[in-house]
Write a structure and sequence with these properties.
alpha/beta, single chain, two-stranded antiparallel sheet, 7-stranded mixed beta sheet
């Protein structure tokens, strides 16, 4: 009899713990739903919860640890371009499937799914705008669209933007984030490296400014071409920047790479990057650099004797 009572007591005790565990899991699920509804953001690095509006006001940079959260192309344009000055370019250009490429699915189907899911036509947005009143041509890559891979449309839009900037004597700024060339377009993708680089060479010959901004990640063919051709190369803190992947390099060299390999800080130490600028200071830094590198006026300056004679005329 006593054993039955004890067993019932143990059973009820187990039930109590089980019910408590279930209620605890329910509260955790409720908490996760509350965090995920867009009001709060959990930093992937330090775990601190931030109010989404405050985080966005701080350019999506964690106020606790300084972690730079990835932002999309629309948010990047809002952060850099003065309000009501953005004029997009070549929005009608659409990617095609010239090779009829297929991996696990058709490339044409993959493109359509990306366009419907993200709302972008391809992995870059280009246009003209102003930074603190100074005109620029801006290209912003978007990692959400097939890893920011460089296809024919990406290369064509960037090339047209650079040529327009050269014609207007505007500086060029490209925000880079990419996994490299788009394998589904084969050689057509690799050709974009040369095409963009040629346009940048003509821009440089016109003595005009080009600033690439390397964000996390910037790799592959983008790093091997226009990302490293800038007059002044800026990187965001802790950004991954490189050509081949870390594992490929380790297998090729057969040695362990340092922990900070292919980071912005490591590239700055070895001279591949000119400066590392926090996103919160990026717009003001760009404005200063553009103001310092404005092209000289085309009208000849007034000579000293002309100014003297003008002054004497005023006195008379």
């Amino acid at each position: 009899m006593a054993n039955n009572e004890e067993s019932r007591g143990l059973k009820s005790l187990f039930d109590w713990f089980a019910n408590r565990r279930k209620s605890g899991s329910t509260s955790l699920e409720r908490q996760e739903r509350e965090i995920a509804d867009g009001l709060w953001h959990k930093c992937p690095k330090c775990g601190v919860l931030s109010y989404a509006k405050d985080l966005r006001a701080n350019q999506m940079v964690c106020v606790e640890c300084g972690h730079h959260n990835r932002v999309d192309s629309d948010e990047r344009i809002r952060q850099l371009i003065d309000q009501n000055t953005w004029r997009p370019m070549d929005e009608h250009l659409r990617p095609t499937d010239p090779l009829q490429f297929r991996d696990r699915k058709l490339y044409s189907d993959r493109l359509r799914e990306m366009q419907e899911k993200i709302g972008l036509i391809d992995a870059v947005k280009t246009g003209l705008g102003q930074i603190n009143g100074l005109p620029i041509a801006l290209g912003v890559m978007d990692f959400r669209f097939m890893g920011g891979s460089m296809g024919s449309v990406v290369g064509e839009k960037l090339t047209r933007m650079i040529e327009q900037a050269t014609q207007r004597c505007y500086p060029v700024v490209i925000v880079c984030t990419s996994g490299g060339a788009r394998m589904q377009e084969g050689m057509l993708s690799l050709m974009q490296m040369a095409k963009i680089s040629a346009a940048l060479q003509r821009h440089q010959e016109a003595r005009l400014l080009y600033i690439p901004i390397l964000t996390n990640p910037t790799t592959g063919g983008v790093t091997a071409s226009f990302a490293m051709l800038g007059d002044i190369i800026i990187a965001e803190p802790k950004a991954t920047i490189g050509f081949a992947g870390r594992r490929v390099i380790e297998q090729t060299l057969r040695e362990k790479l340092p922990d900070d390999f292919q980071t912005a800080e490591d590239l700055l130490k070895h001279g591949f990057v000119d400066d590392i600028v926090s996103r919160t200071q990026l717009k003001s830094t760009l404005a200063q650099l553009i103001a310092l590198h404005q092209p000289l006026p085309t009208t000849p300056p007034m000579l000293l004797w002309e100014s003297m004679s003008l002054s004497s005329t005023v006195v008379e």
